[in-house]
Write a structure and sequence with these properties.
The protein is mainly β. 5% of the residues lie in helices and 23% in strands. It is a single-pass membrane protein.
């Protein structure tokens, strides 16, 4: 191909035939012998795309993605009458879109991860009305979403993420009749237009990492098929819209890093498919709602860095409240072996003791309770979390000893009880032999192995660090040993 600076392996290697239809990446029509597909992705191609590609007037697929092609995309490419798929993503193309795009057969246009500059072409759907997939992510685009895009009634997937698009997210996008995936994240949108009642077929909506200000529209009744909603890292405030907290199809909700406030209210009796709930780094307050106990498919929940308070035994989401059918006994969570692998409750105002019921989470991987106001002893029942990998109880007011049974947590790779009021001997053996002193610092009465001779005869050689056992304890031990020796000598003489 003219314009390329690199060789395409498998071209011009046959001495018996120069038929290009036998070359790697070229597919020809069996009847006419004309080239219908160029599939040259991931060939490490360099150089530019020649205008001569317009001579391939039967071409249906042009895939040059994941190469190192540069320069402007020839205008003639956007006039190939039979072209159905254009994938030039992940190259170094520059320059804007042509004024006119005349691709009546176009179904897929992917120009993502280039340096195209300019704005989304307003006339993209004038002559390309059957386009199904439009991907322009990370292409340095500016401006707003053109109103003319409403004419792309066959669109199923729009991705314009990681650009510099501004203004409001227009409501007409939600009403494109076949649209299922709308990815608008990592731009500079400031608001969402949406108040209609007509139904939308969108299943995945991502507006995260923008500059959206104010309350989230209460318009989720428009999305009966919505499974994934992501709006993290914006400037959203107010409460969670009731239409979102009653979405029956929703699987994941990510509202992390905003300014939402007030209590959390979810109707988990309807939200039976909810698997991920991320509300971290907001201003939610009150108690953790026990209605989450009805979300039987939860796999990860992040409520860190909020203002929750909680006392007593948990109704969330490990055990349900007693009822008459269970004779006063706690009704165990239905899917005990499908517990969430992650529970993050750090940086809240949780008080009271650590719930022993955490020990029933056999498949929990991460439990983070640091920076709360938890008190009391560490329950030995935590040794039942046999799959736990990260357990962080630091920066609380915990007292008593570290349960020796925790050494049975064979998968534990990160552990911290730093800055509490713990005392006694740090368990040793298995995974506990790998934790540094930083896991235990800030506990004035906590010491290693034994509080009498650990510094002298049984130091933690694997860590090569001194024990935090108080000097006063050493003095008492030495004094007691001296007294015992003198008493023994007196008995011998008698």
């Amino acid at each position: 191909m003219q314009g390329l600076e690199s060789r395409i392996d498998g071209w011009f290697v046959s001495n018996s035939s120069f038929n290009c239809c036998n070359w790697v990446g070229i597919i020809c029509d069996s009847d006419s012998g004309r080239v219908v597909k160029l599939e040259l992705q991931n060939k490490r191609l360099t150089g530019g795309l020649s205008d001569l590609v317009s001579n391939l007037d039967h071409l249906k697929t042009l895939n040059l993605s994941h190469n190192f092609l540069k320069g402007m995309i020839p205008v003639s490419v956007f006039s190939l009458y039979n072209l159905e798929v254009v994938d030039l993503s992940n190259n170094v193309f520059s320059g804007g879109f042509p004024v006119s795009i005349n691709l009546p057969a176009l179904q897929v246009l992917d120009l993502s991860v280039n340096g195209l500059l300019g704005s989304i072409p307003a006339g993209i759907c004038v002559n390309s009305t059957r386009i199904r997939v439009l991907k322009l992510a990370a292409s340095s685009l500016t401006g707003t979403i053109p109103f003319e895009l409403r004419n792309c009634v066959f669109l199923e997937h729009i991705c314009v993420a990681s650009n510099s698009l501004t203004g409001a997210i227009p409501e007409f996008l939600f009403h494109l009749p076949r649209l299922m995936v709308l990815e608008l994240q990592d731009n500079m949108f400031t608001s969402i237009d949406g108040s209609g009642n007509s139904s939308s077929g969108i299943t995945r909506l991502d507006v995260s990492s923008n500059r959206i200000l104010g309350e989230l529209p209460d318009f989720f009744h428009m999305f009966p098929r919505l499974t994934h909603f992501c709006a993290h890292s914006n400037r959203l405030s107010g409460g969670i819209p009731s239409s979102l907290s009653n979405s029956p199809a929703i699987s994941s909700i990510n509202l992390r890093n905003n300014s939402f406030s007030g209590p959390i209210v979810f109707n988990c009796s309807l939200m039976t498919n909810l698997t991920l709930l991320d509300l971290g780094t907001n201003h939610f307050s009150g108690v953790i709602p026990d209605d989450l106990s009805s979300c039987h498919k939860l796999k990860a929940i992040n409520l860190a860095r909020n203002k929750f308070k909680e006392e007593g035994s948990p109704d969330f989401p490990f055990f349900k409240r007693p009822n008459t059918s269970t004779r006063g006994l706690p009704l165990q969570y239905r899917q005990l072996m499908s517990f969430p692998p992650l529970i993050d409750l750090k940086y809240n105002f949780l008080n009271g003791s650590i719930w022993p019921e955490f020990g029933n989470l056999k498949r929990l991987h991460v439990l983070n309770l640091k920076h709360n106001n938890l008190s009391g002893e560490i329950p030995s029942e935590l040794s039942g979390m046999m799959s736990i990998e990260i357990l962080d109880l630091s920066y609380n007011n915990l007292s008593g000893q570290i349960p020796p049974s925790l050494v049975n947590l064979n998968f534990l790779s990160e552990f911290s009880v730093a800055y509490n009021r713990l005392s006694g001997i740090v368990p040793y053996g298995r995974q506990f032999g790998t934790f540094s002193n930083s896991s235990f610092e800030g506990n004035r009465d906590l010491c290693g192995l034994t509080c009498e001779d650990s510094l002298v005869t049984r130091s933690r050689t694997r860590r090569s660090k001194k024990s935090n056992c108080p000097i006063e304890g050493m003095a008492v031990g030495i004094g007691f040993g001296t007294f015992f020796l003198l008493a023994l000598m007196v008995l011998i003489k008698l």
